[in-house]
Design a protein that fits this description.
Keywords: Methyltransferase, Transferase. With 208 residues, this protein is α/β, with parallel strands linked by helices. The chain contains 7 helices and 7 strands, in the order ααβαβαββαβααββ. The structure holds S-adenosylmethionine (SAM).
Length: 208
């Protein structure tokens, strides 16, 4: 289904998450165990968490793997979320910024995580090209997303442009695989989290 573009998604997202920064939100934590499993063998790694929110995932990574010499960076478009992340005072850098215009040099990271954030991006192709740009060849992406069966997904997607939450589109698993493959990023694993989430493991080709 073609989504009608609106210039207000980003503004709605920022307003919504600035307000949500003081509340508990969502079920992102359901993806964290898959992230923890998929990064188990990494060491001395530069990891960027896009749409990091309050930095909960980075905090968990440091808790589970305290001695892996991480270089962790979290970025989020909501300045209030980043304020909360900084308050955690963990061993990670946090920055306000947009997934569609990442303020990092080419090939800066070995791993990119993006949990329950991608469905807010009004230009997903641009976000993927930015992910690809800042990721090193052979680097991995762990994407955690909402998953809803087709009939209900179509209804929800129809209403998203009228909502104030800044959600742009809920994707099917096939759509996720397709839009990443279009930019030469290949899905190598996927874990369904019953009943409404899916974590994807994707990889940038070794050669550019
Ligand atoms: C549901 S929260 C998930 C937060 C976090 N990943 C977690 O695991 O709890 C989605 C986050 O994505 C951020 N976000 C949405 N659009 C963004 C964009 N274009 N660039 C960067 N962050 C964005 C929101 O501000 C919000 O903090």
């Amino acid at each position: 289904m073609k989504i009608k573009k609106s210039s207000t998604y980003k503004k709605n997202t920022i307003n919504f998450f600035n307000k949500m920064a003081n509340k508990n939100h969502g079920d992102s934590f359901k993806h964290y165990d898959n992230v923890i499993k998929w990064i188990k063998n990494k060491n001395g790694t530069e990891l960027l968490d896009i749409g990091t929110g309050k930095g909960d995932l980075l905090e968990k990574i440091l808790l589970i793997y305290p001695n892996k010499n991480w270089n962790l960076v979290g970025i989020d478009i909501s300045e209030k979320m980043i304020e909360k992340a900084v308050e955690k005072n963990i061993s990670a850098k946090f920055k306000v910024g947009d997934s569609e215009n990442l303020p990092f040099k080419n090939s800066s990271f070995d791993i990119i995580t993006c949990i329950n954030s991608f469905h807010h991006y009004e230009n997903p192709e641009k976000a993927i090209s930015e992910i690809k740009r800042v990721l090193r060849p052979g680097g991995i992406i762990i994407l955690g997303e909402i998953w809803i069966p087709g009939f209900f997904r179509n209804i929800i997607n129809f209403f998203l442009p009228f909502m104030k939450t800044g959600d742009y589109k809920i994707y099917s698993s096939d759509e996720i695989r397709y839009i990443f493959t279009q930019q030469n990023i290949i899905q190598i694993d996927k874990k369904n989290i019953f009943p409404s989430n899916c974590t994807y493991l994707l990889k940038k080709a070794e050669t550019k």
